[in-house]
Amino acid sequence: MTEAWTDHALKALRAARHNADCPSLLALLRAHDPVGVLQQCGDALTAAVSRGLPGAREAATACSSALRERGWPGDEVLAEQLDTAGGRALCRLRPLPVDLEELSSLLEGDPAWGGGRIDLGTGECRPALADTEESWDEEEPEGTERWLDVPCEGSRDAYRDMEDFITTLDDPDLARFLGIAIQGPGAFRRFKDMLATSPAQLQRYWLFSAERQQGRARAWLADQGYRPTLSGDH
Fold it and tell me: In terms of Cα–Cα distance, which of 49, 39, 38, 44 is closest to 15?
């Protein structure tokens, strides 16, 4: 029987991803249900398969099946990536060491920030306001392409995530109160304040939201011809 994702386990998962600690990632996936973190662990799991770690291929196959069954934006892209990892079939997308959470913040953050760009050499995500006009217009050597522009698409999809999450609740009273909370200006703040009265559901929402946001970021990146990867993995 698998365990639920606790704050401690999620911190360990993030650390394993950040440090490219694939053995620790596989141990966490064996102990916990991977369905709640498929997008968040997908690139580290891809690296684990490519490195030939014991149990990685079996975990990737299970996650690929779960992704296709779920069918959220970006899920098919990641399923294909997992299917081709470590094999002769080459993934059609070029590897780029970009953080999906950072990319998502550019795509779906405050419109005042106006998106940003990705350094195609390092994978660094740079918000528009972090760049001076001089650095944005730096002259590039002829025949090179350094930056990938990222538009700000606003919060419509994040609002839809709240609506969709409400439909997953078994508590009709909480669902009704949350439905009222998301009406009008300040919807995101009221939604989170109301959900904070149920810590277990708040944890579910953060996982739900992270999966949806990172999946959309992955789908957007794939449309540009790239896939996220760990630094040093191709």
Answer: 44
CB 146 within 8 A of CB 120: yes
Considering 92, 117, 144, which residue would you say is the last residue of a domain? 92
Same-domain status, 166 and 131: no
Instruction: Read off the pLDDT of residues 63-121 as tens digits, 9 standing for 90 and up.
Output: 999 999 999 999 999 999 999 998 755 678 999 999 999 999 999 987 776 799 999 99
Q: How far is it, in rounded angstroms, from Cα 217 to Cα 196?
A: 26
| Strand, helix or coil for residue 94 | strand
CA dist 30 and 24 (Å) reads: 10
Q: Which domain holds residue 137?
A: 101-153
Residues facing residue 3 across a β-bridge? 32
- 57-91 residues labelled b (16+ CB within 10 A) or e (exposed): bebbeebbeebeeeebbbbbbbbbbbbbbbeeeeb
Q: pLDDT tens, 160-181?
A: 999 999 999 999 999 999 999 9
Q: What would the two tokens of residue 175 be?
A: 């669902």
71 and 107 co-located in one domain: no
The residue type found at 165 is: F
Q: What is the pTM of this model?
A: 0.90
E-strand stretches of 12-99: 94-96
